[in-house]
Design a protein that fits this description.
With about 180 residues, the protein is of the alpha+beta class. The chain has a single domain (about 20-180), classed as Cyclophilin-like (Cyclophilin, Beta Barrel). The chain contains 3 helices and 10 strands, in the order H-E-E-H-E-E-E-E-E-H-E-E-E. It is globular, with a radius of gyration of 17 Å.
């Protein structure tokens, strides 16, 4: 009976702390990301702002490096920068790790410069973690369905477009982004 009670408590605990889920549909297929509001509230709120305003739609995964990551959300199909809100505070010290399948905020050399661009880790990238090399890159969720679609992105041929390297030859376009109920 005690084992049953512990199992039920664990299940309820997981349901209570499960974050919002977002489905991202691309021209290669769709995947679902579960966001971690508890450990990355600033990054999650920022990401959801772009989801809710619809501005991720029509952007592309513009930087894809096999054995590393797929980055998107910041450029349209012609490599024009998308408009951004103000940069956010870096939450890389939140304890979440840049492991395979996690999503993190992209930023410049300024730790507090993340706006709309994100990347999905294709492998464990420990060197991006806060404890490995502060200030680190803030993880705020993980792909819970369709990781094979993200892995397929890394199989696409890439080239250089202007000053941008590792750009897929065929655009990988975000066609819709939906918050799941």
């Amino acid at each position: 009976m005690l084992k049953y009670a512990i199992a039920c408590a664990a299940l309820v605990s997981n349901l209570v702390f499960a974050g919002p889920k977002v489905e991202m549909e691309t021209n290669l297929g769709s995947f679902v990301i579960e966001l971690n509001q508890e450990q990355a509230p600033v990054s999650v709120a920022n990401f959801l702002k772009y989801v809710e305003d619809g501005s991720y739609v029509g952007t592309q995964f513009h930087r894809v490096i096999p054995g590393f990551m797929a980055q998107g959300g910041g450029f349209d199909q012609n490599m024009n920068r998308a408009a951004t809100y103000a940069p956010i505070q870096n939450e890389a010290s939140n304890g979440l790790k840049n492991n395979a399948g996690t999503i993190a905020m992209a930023r410049t050399n300024d730790p507090n410069s993340a706006t709309r661009q994100f990347f999905i880790n294709l492998v464990d990238n420990d060197f991006l973690n806060y404890n490995s090399r502060p200030p680190g890159y803030a993880v705020f969720g993980q792909v819970v369905e369709g990781f094979d679609v993200v892995q397929q992105m890394a199989q696409q041929p890439t080239h250089t477009v202007g000053r941008y390297r590792d750009v897929p030859v065929e655009n990988i376009v975000i066609e819709s982004v939906t918050i799941l109920k």
